[in-house]
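User: Just a sanity check before I run the rest of the batch. Below are the structure tokens for the first item. I only need the designed sequence back.
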């Protein structure tokens, strides 16, 4: 069955977007709506379906080390662009964090897309990035312009000017993945958070429509690079999850929310 989510935020916001609604303070319900809308949009556009990955770990839903949550690993029903999409909801110490991480396969050079939304009392947080699959300093100028150009920098500036920056990850792996486009801020305006998240996801989806396949002889190197990036993503998640839940529970949670780290484009979770 094709994976489908009801786009709750679209129902609430209508066609005019999040900012058309009356300004409101942040709460968990709004985070859930924005997350559901973004994940539902990706699912519809790319034809995602579920897998048994987190279920096989016994971690599709969990309550361990004082941390509650759920996680899933999704994939395209007809593989074309992606290795897969990890999505999670984690509640610890009164804060709920929801994530979407879309990991590209080696056939296209479009950046990986990550989105993290959090609710803590009246404030919200957004961390969003396009993880580069090229060396931004030395790559062709067209790659920088296509994926880190004026439109992305304007989006970044709009978010960065609206609230204080969040501290970077304390884990080396978490910091290593950051691109110049990473937006990571605390906001009082939930509507702005929703607008930033939707713009971030839609831009990435539009890149896929226009993407040209990578020539076959370059795909092996791309796959090796992506495997390394995902290992660092896992290491960053281990550090943060162990800090929340302790060694054993933290490692299990990190495995669930990262997805199958060593899975190649053609194999792994069913």
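Assistant: Here's the designed sequence for the first item:
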């Amino acid at each position: 069955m094709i994976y489908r989510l009801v786009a709750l935020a679209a129902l609430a916001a209508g066609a005019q977007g999040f900012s058309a609604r009356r300004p409101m303070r942040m709460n968990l319900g709004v985070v859930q709506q924005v997350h559901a809308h973004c994940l539902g949009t990706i699912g519809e556009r790319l034809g995602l379906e579920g897998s048994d990955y987190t279920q096989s770990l016994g971690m599709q839903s969990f309550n361990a080390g004082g941390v509650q949550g759920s996680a899933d690993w999704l994939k395209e029903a007809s593989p074309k662009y992606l290795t897969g999409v990890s999505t999670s909801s984690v509640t610890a110490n009164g804060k709920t964090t929801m994530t979407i991480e879309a990991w590209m396969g080696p056939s296209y050079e479009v950046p990986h897309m990550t989105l993290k939304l959090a609710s803590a009392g009246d404030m919200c947080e957004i961390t969003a990035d396009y993880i580069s699959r090229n060396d931004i300093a030395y790559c062709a100028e067209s790659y920088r312009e296509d994926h880190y150009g004026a439109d992305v920098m304007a989006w970044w500036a709009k978010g960065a000017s609206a609230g204080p920056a969040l501290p970077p990850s304390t884990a080396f792996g978490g910091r290593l993945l950051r691109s110049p486009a990473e937006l990571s801020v605390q906001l009082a305006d939930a509507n702005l958070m929703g607008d930033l998240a939707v713009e971030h996801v839609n831009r990435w989806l539009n890149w896929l429509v226009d993407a040209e396949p990578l020539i076959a002889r370059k795909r092996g190197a791309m796959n090796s690079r992506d495997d390394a990036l995902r290992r660092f993503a896992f290491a960053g998640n281990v550090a943060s999850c162990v800090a929340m839940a302790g060694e054993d529970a933290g490692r299990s949670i990190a495995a669930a929310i990262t997805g199958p780290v060593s899975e190649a484009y053609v194999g792994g979770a069913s």
